């Protein structure tokens, strides 16, 4: 096992949450969570993943990552057994590399369709001055449905 | 009809790129990074984080527009159709819908793997130039 493996194992327990569908409260806003758009983060998401590039503005791929980090902070991450179904991103003001952004997340909607439970998690990312940088949502097929224990 | 502004960018997804995404995002879900646990799952091996399949689409947009960040008013909406696995070559396709009158200027976007399987599909809306 490599040091990277060890590092990953240590992260696993706080990557996955076990929040039951029934315990999710719509419109309960979490955050804002502050995250800096570092040159490393922006540069390694500007081209093929992980390959560094020199950029002055946050590329679009930064924002799903910022959202994932906020989701970890707000609810411990995505539950084990969940399936990512949809994602939507609406872009506002570009964010310069080096700036810190503030992300708020909330449950937008939860519903059952064709006997499968879905949860829509919404988010917005704001610049230091409050201007909207990105908003969007992620729809997740939740591992538990109404009445189920997590 | 393919929108010629946007190149058909292809990205080969590797376990190394998945690990890099885990490091950047903090998402170390075992389905992405643990070979043993993933092998025992319904997927039979590791799969990429969902947003990784976005990458070639984002790159096609930014390279086609010659920008680092998408302009204000842009939006991207996708449905994930199939998992992406290490070794998959994911290619973005951005086309004008056949019935342009039915759309508000939105472009149809998809990412397909080397076998022609659509891994995500959706739409891209760009602000007027």
Automatic annotation (TrEMBL), chain A:
Domain of life assignment: Bacteria
SUPFAM superfamilies: Thioesterase/thiol ester dehydrase-isomerase
Record InterPro entries: HotDog_dom_sf
Protein name, entry field: N-terminal of MaoC-like dehydratase domain-containing protein
Source organism of the structure: Patulibacter medicamentivorans
């Amino acid at each position: 096992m490599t040091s990277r493996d060890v590092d990953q194992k240590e992260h696993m327990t706080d990557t996955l949450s076990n929040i039951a569908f029934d315990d999710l409260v719509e419109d309960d806003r979490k955050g804002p969570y502050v995250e800096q758009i570092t040159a490393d983060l922006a540069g390694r998401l500007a081209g093929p993943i992980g390959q560094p590039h020199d950029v002055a503005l946050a590329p679009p791929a930064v924002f799903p990552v910022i959202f994932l980090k906020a989701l970890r902070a707000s609810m411990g991450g995505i539950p084990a057994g969940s399936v990512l179904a949809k994602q939507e991103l609406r872009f506002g003001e570009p964010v310069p590399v080096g700036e810190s952004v503030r992300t708020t997340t909330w449950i937008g909607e939860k519903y059952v369709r064709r006997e499968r439970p879905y949860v829509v998690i919404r988010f917005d990312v704001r610049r230091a001055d409050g201007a909207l940088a990105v908003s969007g949502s992620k729809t997740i097929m939740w591992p538990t449905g109404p009445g189920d224990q997590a | 009809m393919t929108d010629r502004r946007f190149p058909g960018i292809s990205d080969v997804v590797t376990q190394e790129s998945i690990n890099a995404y885990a490091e950047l995002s903090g998402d170390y879900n075992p389905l992405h990074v643990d070979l043993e646990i993933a092998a025992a799952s319904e997927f039979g091996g590791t799969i990429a984080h969902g947003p990784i399949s976005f990458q070639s689409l984002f790159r096609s947009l930014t390279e086609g527009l010659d920008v680092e960040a998408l302009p204000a008013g842009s939006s991207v909406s996708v449905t994930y159709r199939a998992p992406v696995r290490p070794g998959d070559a994911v290619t973005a396709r951005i086309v004008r819908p056949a019935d342009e009158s039915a759309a508000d200027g939105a472009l149809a976007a998809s990412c397909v793997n080397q076998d022609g399987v659509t891994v995500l599909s959706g739409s891209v809306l760009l602000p007027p130039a």
